[in-house]
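Standup notes
- HV: blocked on the assembly model, inputs below
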Amino acid sequence: MSERATLPAARWGRLRDLRRIMLFTLLRLGGLLLTVTIGVYLTILIANMGGQVDELRIVQIRSTIADAVRANPAFASMPLDERQALVEGQVQQEIVRLRLDQPFIQRSFDYLWQAMRLDLGRAEQMHSDSGSREVAAIIVERLPATLLLFGTANFLVFFTSIFVALYLSRRYGSLLDRIVIALAPSSAAPGWFYGIFLILIFAFIYPFLPPGGMVRAPPPEDRLTYALSVLQHMVLPVGAMFLSSIFISIYSWRTFFLIHASEDYVEMARAKGLPSSQIELRYVLRPTLPPIVTSFALMLIGLWGGAIILEQVFNWPGLGSLAFRAIGFRDTPVIIASVVIFAYLLAITVFLLDVIYALLDPRVKLGGGGR
Amino acid sequence: MSALADGLGQLRRYPSAVAGIAIIAALLAIAAWAVIAIPYGSALELWRGGAQWQQYPVNARPAWVNWFRTSSLPATQRVTSDPATVAVEEYPGARRLVIPIELDYAHREFPSELNLFIDAAYLELEPFLRMTWYTPDARAIPLGGRRVSRAERISISQDLALERRLDALPHVALFADPAVEGRPRALPGRYRLEIEAVVFEPDATLGATLVSYGRVHGLAGTDHQRRDLLVALLWGTPVALAFGLIAAVGTTLTTLFIAAAGVWFGGWLDAFIQRITEVNMILPVLPILVMVGTLYSTSIWLMLGVVVAFGIFSASIKMYRAMLLPIREAPYIEAARAYGVGNTRMILRYMIPRILPVLIPGFVTLIPSFVFLEASLAVLGLGDPELPTWGKVMNDAQSESALYHGYYYWVMGPAVLLMLTGLGFAMLGFALDRIFNPRLRMI
C-alpha cells in the first residue's frame, strides 16, 4: 500500500494482511498437528510391531506367572490341574490389566488419543526410583540428568564454535585455520567413540576421573560435594561430545561466515571504511542470524532424548538409557511418551522458527507463498 | 562428465585427499584379502568358537606389545612327542612307554596356561600314564598319574591337587626360578615332560602334545573365548565397508530420485513427498532400530534395510529439492521438453546428473556415519548374531570389562580400524567438497 492510498483502503489492506497471517498460522498449525499425529501413530505401530508384540508379551506373562506359582511353596501341594487353573486365572487378570484382550487396532487409537492429549498414562513394567508408575514421573526424574549433560556440552560446542569461527573467518589461511580444517574430518566418529578413548586414558591408564555414572556412590549428603561430584563425572562425557563435534562445527560456521563475508554489500561496507567490528556485527552476523537461530533451536530440541549410546557408554541415568531400557521391557507407554514429547517439541520449534524468521529476515513474508 | 573427471584429477593437489584415498585403498585391500583368505562360511564357523580354539590362549595380547616391553611375553609353544624317541619295555600283557617332550622356554615371564593333549589309539583298555616335570636346573616334579581316553585334554594348570601341593598356580610353580626372591620369575631353559605310559593292548599307541599357552598371540591378540581377534578385525572390514556403502548408496540415490520426481511433477506429488519427509523427521530412528533389533532379529541385513527405509525420506530431500527447483526452469530443460523427452528420461538423464557432482562429497562423508551406526548398534548388544564385526568385538570387550582388566588391545584394535575408516572417507569427502562446491573454491 503506497502513501497515496486513502486511509480506509489502507486499513482495509492491513485487515486483509492480518487475515492472511491468521489463515496462514492456522493452516501451518493444522499441518504440523497432522504431521505429529501421523508420526506418533506410526511410532505406536512400530513400537508394537503392528500388534505382534502382544503375542510375545502374553507368552512372557504366562511363563513369568507359571514360574512364580511353581516357585511358591504355598502352592506345592496343590493338584496339577488346580494349579493350572490358578495360573490361567492370573494370566487372564494380567491380560485384562494390560488390555491385551482388546483388538490391537482399537487400542492403538486409544494410545494415540491419549498421547496427543499428552496424557502419558502409567508404565506397564517400569517405575521411577521413587516407586511411581506414572510415565510423567519416570521421565521427569530422568530429564535433569539429560538436560544437564547434553545442555552443557551443546551450549559449549555451539558458542565456542561460533566465536572461534568468527575469529577464523577474519584471518582465514592462518596456521590455526589450517589446523582446524585438517582436524575437521575427525568428527566422522561419534561422541561415544571418543568417550571410549577418554575412559581408557583418563579413567584407567591415568585414573583421576570416574569411568561412568553421574555421582559418587553413595551420593554425598552435602550439596556442594554433590555438585562437585556430578561435575567430576561430567568431565569425560562432555569432553567426548565436545571433541567429536567441535572441529566440524567450527569448520562449517567458518565456511558459512566466509561465504557471507564475500558478498558485495560487505565489500561495499569495507570500501566505505567501516571498522571491522561493525562490519562483522552488522554486515556478516545480522544477515546470517536466521540460520544460526535455526541450528540453535534444532540443537535445543536435540537435547530431548539425549543419546542412547553415549549414555550407555558412560552409564549416565538420562532419557537415552531410559528409552533403551523401556524398549528392553517392551514398555509401550514409556516409548510412546518420549516420542510424543519429542514430536511436539519439534513441531512447536518449527512453528516458532517460521515466526522468528519473519521477524529476523525482512525478505521472508508470512503467507507469501511459503518458502 | 568431463567436469567430474577434471575434479577428480584435482584431488592430487590435496594431501588430505591423497591420505584418505590411501586409507580407503588399504581398507579395500584388507577387505578383499579377508574374503579370499577366510571364506564366508569358515569365518562364521571360526567366530562361533568352541573346540577349534582350544590350543589358543585366553585374552592374549597382540605379539607386537613385546616391542614396548623390557621383558618379553611368551607366545604359545606347541611340542608334539616324537615316536622315534619313545623308549619301549615289554611286559606280559602290557607295554611301558617312556615319552619325553622337551620344551625350550626363553622368557622370564610365565606362560598363561599349560595343557597336555593326548592322542591315544586303543580298542578297549584305556592306557594309564604318569607324568614327571624336569626343570632346566634338574629338579624333578611329579605331576601325578591317571587313565586317559582317546583324545583327552589334561589341564595341568587347572589341576587343583597339584596347585595345592605346589602352593602356587601350576604353570607358575613349574616354570619358577627358585633363585629369585619376591615376585616370581620364570627360569629360561630346556624343560622336559616325561610321560610314562602303560598300554594294555598290543596295537595301542600314545602320542601327546604339550601346549604352553602364551601371553601374546598374533597381530591382534585373542578374546575371552580364545578366538583370534584377527578373524574379527579382518572380516569386520568387508562387513563395515559393505554396510556403509550400501546404506549410503541406497539412501542417496533413492532420495535423489524421489526429490527429482517431486520437483519435476510438482503439484500434489511434491506436497505429498514434503509431508512424508516431515513425518519421517519426527520418527526417532535409533530407538526404532533398537526396537527392531530387540523384537525381530539383529541380522545385519535387516538393520541395513531399516536404515535405508528410514533414510529415504530424510531431511536431505529438502536440500536436493532446493537445488533442483532452479534447474527445472533452466533453458536446457525447456529445450529437452520441446523435443519431447519423456518424464523418466528427463529425471534420470537431465536433472539428476546436473546436481550429482555437488552431492558426491556428502555421499562420501555419509559412508563412515553408517559404519559407525552399525558399530553403535553392536555396542548396544544388537550386533549381527553370526557375523564377526568390529562393533561386536567392542561389545564383547565391554561386557567382559576389558578396560578394567587392562586388556586395552581388545578395545583398541576395532577402535583404530573404525577411526581409520571414518578418517579415510571424511578426509576424501572434505577435499571433494572443496573441489565440487563452487562457493568453497574461491575461499
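- HV (later): unblocked. Chain B touches chain A through 47 residues (CB under 8 Å). The mean pLDDT of chain B is 87.
- Next: hand off to the docking folks.
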